[in-house]
Amino acid sequence: LAGGIILGVALWLRHDSQTTNILYLQLGDKQAPNTFYVGIYILIAVGAVMMFVGFLGCYGAIQESQCLLGTFFTCLVILFACEVAAGIWGFVNKDQIAKDVKQFYDQAFQQALMAESDMNNGKAVVKTFHETLDCCGPDNAVGAITPLWRDDLCPKKETVLKNLIESSNCHKKIDELFSGKLYLIGIAAIVVAVIMIFEMILSMVLCCGIRNSSIY
């Protein structure tokens, strides 16, 4: 059940409309950074393997098989080690993910402002960011200095004053999007880790109980 829940959460994050709209974008021959999906794929793999390993543990408990329970324990240890490694990787790269996406947005924004922007898809990329995240511009300073591009690129007819008050710049919205998603991934990883620890303890207790009972 825990594996199914983790798999469901991971698939929901993978196919979330906001992230897919942004991370599938392509600016010329450059693809949007998809480092975020590495963590999602790890969660999907962990969820799927947990479902299989959980079935193995249940069957081993029903059959009172020390071999199956030992295999179940070994698989849990391997999964736990992979999850710890993935958690360390995610903690190290959590700021880099949003930074890479913001850099990609800034490049598209600069191309959208250029006179020859019709020759590339910079405007289309920027509009997708604006419509998906309901934001406008890379930061408030740029919004105050260059308000002329708003009618062409932004989803709403916004005034410069409104943008300054509400801080609806895309850098902030990108940070909010990925910090929220990474926070959810972190919670799921902690829940899985706690469940795994209990599973390892209980499987060893059951395995030892079966071994002792066979003596009598």
UniProtKB/TrEMBL annotation:
Cite the CDD domains for this sequence.
CD81_like_LEL (cd03151)
This protein's GO cellular component annotations are: basolateral plasma membrane
Q: What residue ranges are annotated as transmembrane?
A: 36-62, 68-92, 182-206
Question: Which keywords annotate this record?
Answer: Adaptive immunity, Cell membrane, Disulfide bond, Immunity, Lipid-binding, Membrane, Transmembrane, Transmembrane helix
Query: Would the keyword Membrane turn up in this protein's UniProt record?
Result: yes
What does the UniProt entry say about where the protein is found?
Answer: Basolateral cell membrane; Membrane
Task: Give the bilayer topology.
Answer: Multi-pass membrane protein
Could you confirm whether the keyword Translocase appears in this record?
no
Which domain of life, per UniProt? Answer: Eukaryota
Disulphide bonds annotated for this chain are: C135-C170, C136-C154
| GO MF annotation list | lipid binding
One BP annotation, GO: adaptive immune response
| Family membership | Belongs to the tetraspanin (TM4SF) family.
Q: What is the protein's name according to its record?
A: Tetraspanin
